[in-house]
Automatic annotation (TrEMBL):
Gene3D superfamilies: Homeodomain-like. Residues 55-155 form the HTH araC/xylS-type domain. Keywords: DNA-binding, Transcription, Transcription regulation. One of its GO terms (molecular function) is DNA-binding transcription factor activity. This is Helix-turn-helix domain-containing protein. It comes from the Bacteria. InterPro entries: Homeodomain-like_sf, HTH_AraC, HTH_AraC-typ_CS, PchR_regulatory_protein, Tscrpt_reg_AraC-type_HTH. SMART domains: HTH_ARAC.
Length: 161
């Protein structure tokens, strides 16, 4: 059912940009998803369903971002597909499941660093967003944004703007 909702939302957001062939493909995929839901099965070899599966997984990630249990295995279990099927779906959109989770967590941590006074410490952010420790978080943050969390917070603070 999550796939059906994710596909419908994705089509709704992009319908104006679709060519007639794109509209037809979206329609066909919607029919296949509805059949799969009605028959309680999912054809993990159907390539048209991969973007919808990836989107459904992304929606789940966004809803469970701070959950320590969040993993490709948890997502696959929730979506009732194999981990490999989930990985293949993400590959069609050009990223890995683990990378998507890490990037989303880093993005939320980055936003928290701009919260101003009372913002969480680097250690608190690392713990909240499920990084092994502060050092791991700082390295990942610097790799993603080109500066440490502290440098970023200073550069976006009231005097750095």
């Amino acid at each position: 059912m999550r796939l059906l909702v994710a596909h419908t939302n994705m089509v709704h957001e992009t319908i104006a940009d679709l060519s007639p062939a794109g509209v037809h493909a979206a329609h066909s995929t919607l029919i296949e998803l509805a059949k799969a839901v009605a028959q309680s099965r999912f054809d993990d070899t159907e390539p048209l369903l991969a973007p919808s599966l990836a989107q459904a997984a992304k929606d789940l990630v966004d809803n469970h971002l701070a959950d320590p249990e969040l993993s490709p295995m948890m997502l696959a279990r929730q979506l009732r597909v194999s981990v490999r099927t989930l990985q293949r779906a993400f590959a069609t959109v050009g990223e890995s499941v683990t990378t998507y989770i890490r990037h989303r967590r880093l993005e939320e941590a980055r936003l928290a660093l701009t919260a101003g006074p009372g913002r969480p410490s680097v250690s608190e952010l690392a713990a909240h967003w499920q990084f092994a420790d502060s050092s791991h978080f700082i390295r990942a943050f610097k790799k993603r944004y080109g500066q440490t969390p502290t440098e970023y917070a200073r550069s976006t603070g009231p005097t750095g703007r």
